[in-house]
Amino acid sequence: MNSEVTLELSEVVVCRGAQSLGPVSLKIQRGECSSLVGANGSGKSSILEAVAGFLQVESGTIRIGGKTISDEGTGNEPWQRGIGWLGQQRGLWPHMTLREQAQLLSGQKTAGQLEETAAALDLQTLLDRRPDQLSGGEAQRGELLRTLCGSAPLLLLDEPFSAQNSQQRERILEVLHRELEAGRTILLAIHEALPDIEAIPLGIGSDC
Q: How far apart are CA 47 and CA 188, in angstroms?
C-alpha cells in the first residue's frame, strides 16, 4: 500500500439548510478509492462539495496532499485544491463538442489517450457531438471523460453511475480502476457499496 495520504477528513461537519451532516473522518492513500454510501439526505453530496470547496465546513479539518485546505470556516478556493469534479447536475458546455471540452482540460492525457479513454467509455463515435446531441447516459459519461482528461490527482465523483445501465457501469468501473493504477485517488458518493471499494456509511443528518 502506498503510504502517501492524498485525502484526509477529520471529524468534518457541514450544514445544508437546517440540517447538520457528519462528522465524517477518513483517509485515502494515493492510488486508492473510497466511497461515501447512504440514502438520499445522508450527506454524501454535501461532504463531497465540502472537499471540493463548494460548501463551507462548519467544523473539522480537510487535508489534501498533506496540506490543510479547510479548517472550520476557512479554506482554499475550489480551483486551488487539485481536484477533478463530477457532480450530479450536468455541466457540459452546450456550444462545444465532447472532444473540444476534453481537450480544454487535457493536462494528463495525450490525444491518443483521450481517444482510448473515450473508447473505453463507449464514446469513441460521439466525440464530435455537442451535448444536445447526446442521451443522458452519454452526457454523463462525456462529463466523466472531461474530468478524467484534467490533471487533478484527486477525483470527486458524485453518483457517476446514476444514468448508466449495468454494462456501462462496468465500463466506468474498469476506467476508474485504470486511473487508480496510474496513481490517482478517487472518492465516490453512491447509494450502495461496491465490491473491493472501502465504504464509509452515512446516516441521516440532524438539526444544525
A: 11
The overall average pLDDT reported for the chain is 90
Question: What topology is assigned to 5-207 in CATH?
Answer: Rossmann fold (3.40.50)
Indicate if the pLDDT at residue 169 is higher than 90. Answer: yes
Query: What sign results for the dihedral spanned by CA atoms 71, 75, 76, 78?
Result: positive
Q: What's the burial of 1, exposed, middle or buried (CB within 10 Å: 0-12/13-18/19+)?
A: exposed
Phi, psi of 99 (to 5 degrees): -60, -45
Distance CA 13, CA 46 (A): 10
Task: Compare 76 and 118 and report the one with higher pLDDT.
Answer: 118
Q: So what's the pLDDT on residue 123?
A: 98
C-alpha cell of residue 152: 487533478
119: helix, coil or strand? helix
- What are 99's three cell numbers? 472532444
Q: What is the largest CA-CA distance in the chain?
A: 50
Other beta carbons within 10 angstroms of residue 118's beta carbon come to: 22
**Side-chain-side CA neighbours of residue 29 (13 Å):** 9
- Distance (Å, rounded) from C-alpha 183 to C-alpha 180? 5
Taking alpha carbons only, the member of 1, 68, 7 closest to residue 35 is: 7
Task: Determine the residue type at 162.
Answer: S
Q: Decide: 59 and 10 in contact? Cβ < 8 Å.
A: no
The verdict on pTM exceeding 0.90 is yes
